[in-house]
Write a structure and sequence with these properties.
The structure is a homodimer of 200-residue chains.
Chain A lengths: L1 H12 L4 H11 L8 H13 L3 E6 L7 E6 L1 H12 L10 H7 L6 H34 L3 H37 L4 H13 L2
Antiparallel strand pairs in A: 1-2
Chain A binds a DNA duplex (30 and 30 nucleotides) through helix 3.
DNA sequence: GGTTTCTATAGGACATCTCCTATATTGTAC
DNA sequence: GTACAATATAGGAGATGTCCTATAGAAACC
């Protein structure tokens, strides 16, 4: 139900078309919620059928008409109810970890290839965060108190993305370093685990 | 395709029934891949149709017959191919972050309730990790070199779970502390972000 | 004494999301 | 000059996974 309420959330800020929503998702919440274009359009249809959103058709000459959606009162109420309700626990799903779990079947080289590819992906992600953080920083500095308050939520999710990204990268770097040093052993991993858990 | 190959992975270690597989999933890979019972049985049917696994029916008196599955040569080959192939990037899906993103609509108290509930869930998870790590530590100590080598993969995923869990918990604790101190502001979050990214 | 848990399998319905495709025009890149 | 990206919508098919249910006897719990 998160896609449903994420759409309601954006439409409660300002009216948007399905196309606008797709771009907004990609620019602001991609690091914790990605949305397929087809899924957005379908959900808008459902939300409209449920009276959660309404739209105004805006004629265009050379392109299909825009449908400018906005949240209704019912929609905003449903959003607020959902926001305050406990968040469901979402199981992680990490194919790379499945591969590493069974990496005893793999050559050390093949395992290194997997780890390096993942590190590249994380570096790219961290680079994107850096750009995003710089842009947000400037927006915060030039914003009034009201606008600043509205940025707290988005910034909180950004801090989450950056902190977890850094932890993930550190895990990868440590693995690669240990693999190089020949200290990639069960004993070493267990003492790492004990050390991490003892600091509480 | 990860469920498929996780099943192949376990069945390449030792023959198991669907029931055994479910327990094994819950005990060893739950922190990065959970498996629904019905999904396991359906996948076993598919794998058998594809010649990836085969089974021996073991009659039981008071219960349904066990089907003891094992990976075939074809199955192990398919597993090894998949293990060496690049892992697909999996988008995160975090309903809690969706809620926090739009938490401007929520009262500060309601937001704190969400954060505290999440912290409780993470503490519980870290407790489970602690137990698991202690058990693994003892198994490593009493294992021979061969058995130790086979534990490296599982331990690597465990380190991942612990490190990310710690980072996630730290993020939550910082948020709760700042909310208490009244330093829960856009400026503060931006400087947190800049500090985190500057350390590289 | 009744409820829950464990062992063991599996189908039905449903939710959710992704991928591909179609339509139509303009602008940009190589 | 040809292919791709941007604007704008939306259907079809399929992959994947979850929830609920059914069956059935033994054991354990309270």
């Amino acid at each position: 139900m998160s896609l449903r309420h994420a759409i309601l959330g954006f439409l409660s800020i300002r009216p948007m078309s399905g196309y606008d929503l797709k771009r907004t998702f990609d620019q602001s919440v991609r690091h914790f919620w990605s949305a397929d274009q087809a899924a957005i359009y379908r959900m808008l249809g459902d939300l409209e059928a449920d009276g959660m959103v309404e739209y105004e058709r805006i004629a265009q000459e050379t392109r299909p008409d825009r449908k400018l959606f906005r949240a209704t009162g019912t929609g905003r109420d449903a959003l607020d109810m959902w926001l305050a309700a406990p968040a469901p626990a979402v199981p992680r799903r990490e194919p790379l970890l499945v591969k590493l779990f069974f990496s005893g079947r793999l050559s050390p080289e093949a395992t290194l290839v997997l780890l390096r590819a993942e590190l590249d992906a994380v570096e790219a992600e961290m680079g994107a965060f850096k750009t995003y953080v710089e842009a947000m920083g400037e927006r915060v500095e030039s914003a009034d108190a009201n606008a600043r308050a509205s940025m707290v939520g988005p910034l909180v999710t950004l801090v989450n993305g950056v902190q977890l990204g850094l932890a993930y990268r550190a895990w990868l770097q440590r693995l690669l370093r240990d693999a190089n040093d020949g200290t990639f052993t069960a004993e070493n991993l267990v003492s790492q685990l004990r050390a991490a858990l003892e600091t509480q």
